Amino acid sequence: MKATLVREIGAGFVTEDVELAAPIGREVLVDVKASGLCHTDLTFSRNDMGTPLPMLLGHEVAGVVAAVGPGVTEFAVGDHVVGCLVQSCGKCEACLTGRTFQCEHPEETLRHATDAPRVTAGGEPVEQVFGLGGFAQQALIHENQLVKVNDAIPFPQAALLGCGVVTGAGAVINTANTQAGDSVVIIGAGGVGLNAINGAVVAGATTIIAVDVADDKLEKAKRFGATHVINSTKADAVAEVLAITGRGADAAFDFVGIPAVTQSGLDMIRPGGGLYLIGIIDPSATLPLLTIGLIGAQKRIQGVYMGSTTPKHDIPLYADLYLQGRFELDDLMSREIALDGVNEGYAALKEPDVTRVVITSGLS
Ligand SMILES: [Zn+2]
Ligand SMILES: [Zn+2]
């Protein structure tokens, strides 16, 4: 089968023939029907994150079950599924107390060193990043990383549920526990931030402020439910948020990850409010903090992983909201590409009117 790999850091993606093993244990073979391009994969392709090469990325994957291993109980051939990079063993204390995103043994969803690798190219092992490997015609995935979804949801929209949607909406709904009547600031109205706006609508926030540098993204933010928008190149975003909210927002969500932007998020929240860090443009970025300022204002800063998502609970929830017309996924879709168009797809994501790019052809 064909897969699109990274063979060298910074050298982009190449499409080539790879071999996929037959499913063993609790593995599920998925015919990939749609695969989203997430910025995290681009970060992995450009920065040495310690991942062996060659590597197979792609972690927003939707498809149809083609075969199941002998230990699989939850899925059958023909099921429509979405993959999620939350790797959970299902047995540790974190998993058993509903925090699968903090699993102590994520490696239990992978093959053991003594097993043959799931993916090889010309006999050489290929690193299946996050246990998914969605930039391929088929993917071999542990059943704990898969979620069954309603057949009515189109594959490209379903693929987005696996990372971008749960990351954005989950940060607002799960991590920050946003309540009806809350005020929130979403910094960065891109493909993930828009889902946070939609999550804030679902949670009942009454003041939803979107901050971005591009007017067309802010127009889109209004369509997703932002009650106020601020172009931070034209206005002092902190002053504007304080003017709108009075003493600051209950929560701010940083989907950008540049130190100056993160600092502005901290200045936008009220005493006792929370700043949630989700996006990271520069993995080496640091944040100088004045401790006394945090103490006096009782502010907290929290890193958010995958929107504190329990995939098998949350992904069907967002799918249902979409099918009820209460969660916008169609407007996220900007461009459909082929499996060998990943480099061009990532280049297109730089265009201000392109929100999400999904591979939908050249697949199984
Ligand atoms: Zn992602
Ligand atoms: Zn666990």
Please characterize this protein's 3D structure.
- The chain is of the alpha/beta class and 364 residues long.
- The protein has helices at 39-46, 93-96, 155-175, 193-203, 215-224, 237-245, 259-268, 291-297, 311-323, 342-348; strands at residues 2-6, 14-17, 19-20, 27-36, 55-56, 60-68, 80-83, 119-121, 124-125, 127-128, 138-142, 146-148, 183-187, 207-212, 228-231, 249-254, 269-277, 300-303, 333-338, 356-361.
- The strands form four sheets. Strands 4, 6, 7, 11, 12, 19 and 20 form a seven-stranded mixed sheet that branches. The chain has a six-stranded parallel sheet with strand order 15-14-13-16-17-18, sandwiched between helices. Strands 2-1-5-10 form a four-stranded mixed sheet, with no helix packed on it.
- The radius of gyration is 20 Å and the shape is globular.
- The model has no long low-confidence stretch (mean pLDDT 96).
- Bound molecules: zinc ion (2 copies).
- Residues 88-89, 91-92, 94-95, 103-105 line the site of one zinc ion.
Strand content: 25-35%
Helical run tally: 10
Termini separation comes to: 8 Å
The low-pLDDT segments are none
Proportion of helical residues: 25-40%
Number of strands: 20
Write out the distinct hetero groups bound to the structure. zinc ion
